[in-house]
Amino acid sequence: MKAAILAIGDELTSGYRLDTNSQYISRHLATLPADVVLHLTVGDDLAAIHEGLRIVLEEADVLVVTGGLGPTEDDMTRQALAAYLNLDLVEDEEALERMRARFAHRGRTMPASNRIQAQVPAGSTIIQNDRGTAAGFYLAVDGKHIFVTPGIPDEMEGMLQGFILPRLRELVGAGHCTRRAALKVYGLPESEINERIRPLLARGRNPLLGLLPHRGTITVEVVAAGPTPQAVDALVEADLVPLRAALGRYVISEDERELPQVVADLLVERGWTIATAEFGTGGLLAARLTEPEGSRRWFRRSIVLDAELAASGESEGDDLPDEEIALTMAASARKATGADVGVGVGEVVVPADSTPQRPYGVVHVAVNVRGQEITRRLSFNGDRASVREWAADAALGLVRLWMLEQDEGNGRAQ
């Protein structure tokens, strides 16, 4: 089954909004399995949408269209698709009543302009929208399966999970099973992961592997297809063995847990608490540590400092080396709160401050665990906001690494 995704919207082609819908849809279509052969983005223009439909329908059997189903004049998807397929637009009474009921539930009268959102090409099956007003729709035409959803991610996701994927599974039929596994990796760059697992990344393999980066975390996805659940389980497990061996301690989870949850779980296992003192990250590390539910079990306090206060633990002031400032911050956070673990994040060097001795993107991170100290000088690319995000994650990664090394030294099973 070959699939394509057509994303529609001036906000996408102008760069004001990132197209996350295509990524989300592709990841889920791969589990059917479906081979996503094309992503295409066009603006809110009848001629552009018409040409986009021609291109994608020549390449794929399944098309998912997102965007352009709003009530305003620039929302032209339904009109363009009806014209391309030479179909009339018709008003669906059920969709219209659902919209009216949705507005009434909020104590409002539906504006006349919203009525167009109940219009669909003749012969369509309505895809109910439980998260918004615009109805989606499905058409089967000349062997092609066309699904159309709003561009709002939450609404699209509801339609994908509630209608599109179940319908496509029916089309795939019995005898086709899939399984997805994911290893989250932190501490290795994507290029090195690629080198370590290169033979498993060959195109055309089953399972199919892919690398999905998000800041410092790289998700290694494994998607297998086969005739029975037992067959796909065997394929996935056969790949997980060499993946674990190649990536080792850098695999932080195999159950979708992100780095903050992984660190929180390690702290809870030990009955430990943690506190932070942050300069360059301005509280981002504390935000990470309090993302998981129940953070009062492991999180004590965050102290956000400016440059003078960061160095005030010593009389040297600005002459105190960056590494020593981070170490002092980590020790102070631990002692001030009675936590088992203290983390200090020093200054993030930005262009106005950078010098040959202190280059752009450098930040020092220190961890103090019951008096034992480690520190790292880290360097990141990107703008100031990106460097701060990377630094907060790197501090979590350093805490995790310290705990793993202690486990290994004590012979504790992982």
Give the overall shape, derived from the CA principal axes: globular
CATH class of the largest domain: Alpha Beta
Mean pLDDT: 89
Low-pLDDT segments: 310-318
CATH architecture of the largest domain: 3-Layer(aba) Sandwich
Number of domains: 3
Strand content: 15-25%
Quaternary status: single chain
Strand order of the largest sheet: 2-1-3-8-7-6
Order of helices and strands: EHHEHEHEHEEEEHEHEEHEHEHEHHEEEH
* Backbone CA Rg: 26 Å
Q: Number of helix segments? A: 13
Q: How would you name the CATH homologous superfamily of the largest domain? A: MoaB/Mog-like domain
Helicity level: 25-40%
Total number of β-strand segments?
17
**What is the CATH T-level topology of the largest domain?**
Molybdenum Cofactor Biosythetic Enzyme, Chain A
Terminal-residue CA separation:
41 Å
The secondary-structure class comes to: alpha/beta
Largest sheet: 6 strands, mixed
Brief summary:
This protein is of the alpha/beta class. The protein is built from 13 helices and 17 strands.
How does this structure look, described?
- Helices cover 39% and strands 25% of the residues.
- It has helices spanning 10-13, 21-29, 46-59, 77-84, 93-105, 153-172, 190-196, 229-247, 259-270, 284-289, 307-311, 322-337, 384-410, and strands at residues 2-8, 35-42, 62-66, 89-91, 119-121, 125-127, 136-141, 144-149, 177-186, 208-214, 217-226, 251-253, 274-278, 299-304, 341-345, 362-369, 372-379.
- The strands form 4 sheets. Strands 2-1-3-8-7-6 form a 6-stranded mixed beta sheet, with helices on both faces. It has a 5-stranded mixed beta sheet with strand order 14-13-15-16-17.
- β16 (362-369) and β17 (372-379) form a beta hairpin.
- The radius of gyration is 26 Å and the shape is globular.
